[in-house]
Amino acid sequence: MQNEKKITRVVFTFLFVLVWINSSFSQNRFSVKQLEQIKQKVEKQIPSLKTQLISKGYTPFQIEFSVDTFRIEQTCREKMSLDYSTSGLTIAVGELSDEYDRLMNKYYTILKQLMKPQDKQILLNAQRAWLNYRDNESKLIMELVDEKYSGGGTIQSNISVGNHLNLVKKRTLEIYDHIMSIKQYQ
């Protein structure tokens, strides 16, 4: 019980610090002009991407998902190229994780709409179980990047945020795959 309280405190402290860093620095680390330039640069690449995807026979839904993921991944890359410090990378990956979380919610809603009413509870239960898994896995990640296991260092923030991103990104892709499995039979 004592260990569980300590882990919970560490996780909440980490999340608080991450949110604080994100809100305090992410908005101010780039000028409005730089953010607009990043957005324009990414958006300029999308028509070419769509053309490539159409030529490969992608469906409109596959194109939408590909563009959604391209947009957030490329925006992250652009931000990292401007600020490749340890904290800059941590913030960029944290923002990317937030964007994947938004995408996960978007595609979760689509999946829910595709399911029969009597089956939606199964999806809800699965998502709740995943959220529980995510929270517990995040606790484990925080414990493993602790100095007693990792040796410490500022790079541990990159590792922990990267691991969290992988969890959210993987779930987003799983939900997308579920949608695709339904769409192929419609």
How is this structure best described in words?
With 186 residues, this protein is an all-alpha fold. Helix content is 85%, strand content 0%. The protein has helices at residues 2-26, 32-55, 60-82, 86-114, 120-144, 147-150, 155-183. The longest helix has 29 residues, at 86-114. The protein is flat, with a radius of gyration of 19 Å.
Topology:
Elements: H1 2-26, H2 32-55, H3 60-82, H4 86-114, H5 120-144, H6 147-150, H7 155-183
Structural class: mainly alpha
Strand content: under 5%
Termini gap: 50 Å
Rough shape? flat
Order of helices and strands: HHHHHHH
Looking at the chains present, what oligomeric state does this protein adopt?
single chain
How many helical stretches? 7
Uncertain segments are none
- State the helical fraction: over 70%
Biggest pleated-sheet summary = none
Radius of gyration, CA atoms, in whole angstroms: 19 Å
Number of strands: 0
Provide mean pLDDT, rounded.
88
Concise description?
With 186 residues, this protein is mostly helical. The chain has helices spanning 2-26, 32-55, 60-82, 86-114, 120-144, 147-150, 155-183.
Which descriptors would you attach to this protein?
186 residues; mainly alpha
